[in-house]
Write a structure and sequence with these properties.
524 residues, alpha/beta, Nucleotidyltransferase, domain 5, 4 domains, 6-stranded mixed beta sheet, 44% helix
């Protein structure tokens, strides 16, 4: 409470007391609690001033996150206290206060900054729960979110909930669902649950159902084939019949509003992984509003009643891998150690890779978009170790030896070119990639004669350098006189090349010049 507001409340309490109003009536008229009136009604001004000072000094547990909470409320005005609590828990781990404390704290901030939120009214239908393992409900949703570049994209979600335990599974993708997608995600869900219910409840979705012919369900060809293998019964809801699938509709709204709202999209694998973690913390890990039980605890019993998955069909179960953030030094921190990835993997602070564990000895790091393997490492049982693959020191996307052979084939004298390239590699092995790039650039000229002469010039003069070769090509490309002298032909080359050639003008003895002059005089 601000000091100004406190004094205003105190004065009003005293004023209404003098008029003879009861404590209950004062509380009602001022919109405060009766205990608050009782606390302040007999205080004198000096005591109240001390109380205000002590309140100003008293810190509240959520205060350490105050600026972050305020920024979220300002940016996402519809955000709930429950979602803020989840975000804090996701970012900082276990908190030393509960959701009720945060709810009051958020209410005060909204009041202080005048950021109002329209109340969301939830409707619940009292329907008796089916027996354990009997029913699962499935439905779909879509949500518009923003990616890191600020572009709005549409994501599509398929949700499952066991009707007895309320244990949930959700999976997202970046395009509308097809029937094969639905079948694959069914298998992922059954793998997540460790089995499947005897009955599945759906809305009238065209990807599952072609038509409902007076009670006879006609399925799409792909889904009918799938049902023959899985052999669970289907209950198809009538249109405008929310009571039949009220549980799953609340799940879809819940995951869209509490997980997806205001969350930045960093890739579909990362999004799905975070959603599973969110379900573990929230949807499956917190007390359910209707049953007043924790779904994860009830599911421990219900899983015993599910039909076992004896045959694994199409499955890309996302829980088998975990995403990790790549550091600037192109390493991935995993359980106390750093594992290297190729140079160039890091593309910025939001670079993520997938990690699969193979047994207890190896792990595979892969690109989460292309699924391409980036690295394979032995798992270190120590802590603080740098596990590095020497091939990750440089970008090895193009091998040196094949590249040298490809360049040599572009010369008329391929054997001489191989000698030239081999000599460069002996002199400059660490910079061979840069040398080959320069030579490749020089070969783009259409003057084959200049290329041949430059190669011969560099080999004869042992100029094992791409820079010298490039300068020589440039010079010979400009030369038009085939009979130009050797001295003239090297004009335009760099000073460094001229020095390497070692050309020096011949110096005659002075007596030779005297002899020539005498002979010239005698002949006149």
């Amino acid at each position: 409470m601000k000091i100004e507001e406190g004094w205003k409340m105190y004065i009003n309490i005293k004023h209404l007391k003098e008029k003879g109003f009861s404590k209950t009536k004062i509380a009602e008229m001022l919109g405060i609690s009766r205990p608050t009136v009782i606390k302040y009604i007999d205080m004198d001004a000096e005591e109240f001033e001390k109380e205000m000072e002590s309140q100003g000094k008293r810190r509240k547990k959520p205060d350490i996150y105050r600026e972050e909470i305020i920024s979220w409320i300002k940016q996402y005005t519809s955000i709930s206290a429950a979602q803020i609590y989840d975000w804090l828990e996701e970012k900082y781990g276990n908190l030393n206060f509960n959701e009720t404390t945060l709810r009051s704290y958020v209410r005060e901030i909204r009041k202080e900054y005048k950021i109002l939120k329209s109340p969301v009214i939830r409707q619940y239908e009292a329907i008796e729960d089916p027996p354990m393992g009997q029913q699962i409900q499935i439905d779909f949703g879509m949500k518009k979110v923003f990616n890191l570049e600020g572009k709005e994209i549409t994501l599509y979600v398929m949700c499952f909930v066991l009707s007895n335990s309320r244990y949930k599974y959700c999976e997202w993708q970046g395009r509308p669902f097809t029937t094969p997608d639905i079948i694959r995600i069914h298998e992922n869900a059954f793998e997540f649950y460790g089995g499947y219910a005897t009955e599945a409840v759906y809305d009238q979705d065209h990807l599952v159902l072609v038509s409902e012919n007076h009670g006879d369900l006609i399925y799409t060809r792909e889904f009918a084939s799938y049902l023959q293998k899985r052999k669970f019964s289907v209950y198809m809801c009538r249109k405008a019949d929310p009571e039949s699938k009220g549980r799953i509709e609340k799940v879809v709204d819940y995951v869209k509003d509490n997980f997806a709202s205001n969350r930045i999209f960093l890739g579909i694998d990362k999004w799905n992984e975070d959603c599973i973690k969110w379900l573990k913390r929230r949807g499956n890990g917190k007390i359910h509003n209707t049953t007043r039980k924790i779904p994860a605890e009830v599911f421990n019993d219900e899983r015993k009643y599910l039909q076992p998955v004896t045959e694994k069909l199409i499955s890309e179960f996302r829980m088998l891998s975990v995403t990790y953030q790549v550091r600037k030094d192109n390493t991935v921190p995993i359980k106390g150690n750093r594992y290297s990835v190729p140079i160039g993997t890091y593309k910025g602070p939001y670079t993520y890779v997938g990690v699969n564990k193979i047994g207890d000895e190896h792990l595979i790091i892969y690109d989460i978009e292309t699924k391409r393997e980036l690295a394979k490492h032995e798992i270190s049982n120590e802590k603080g170790k740098l596990v590095k693959n020497n091939n990750h020191k440089r970008n090895r996307s193009q091998k040196i030896a094949p590249w040298m052979n490809q360049l040599a084939e572009k010369f008329s004298d391929m054997e001489n070119a191989k000698i030239f390239l081999d000599e460069i590699y002996k002199d400059k092995p660490r910079y061979m990639r840069d040398q080959l790039m320069l030579i490749e650039e020089a070969l783009k000229t259409t003057d084959k004669t200049a290329i041949d002469k430059a190669l011969e010039f560099c080999v004869n003069n042992k100029l094992n350098s791409a820079v010298d070769f490039k300068d020589a090509v440039k010079h010979y490309a400009k030369t038009t006189d085939e009979n130009i002298s050797v001295t003239e032909s090297i004009k335009g080359l760099t000073e460094a090349v001229s020095l390497k050639i070692g050309i020096r003008p011949k110096v005659r003895d002075i007596s030779e010049y005297v002899k020539i002059m005498n002979e010239s005089s005698g002949g006149i």
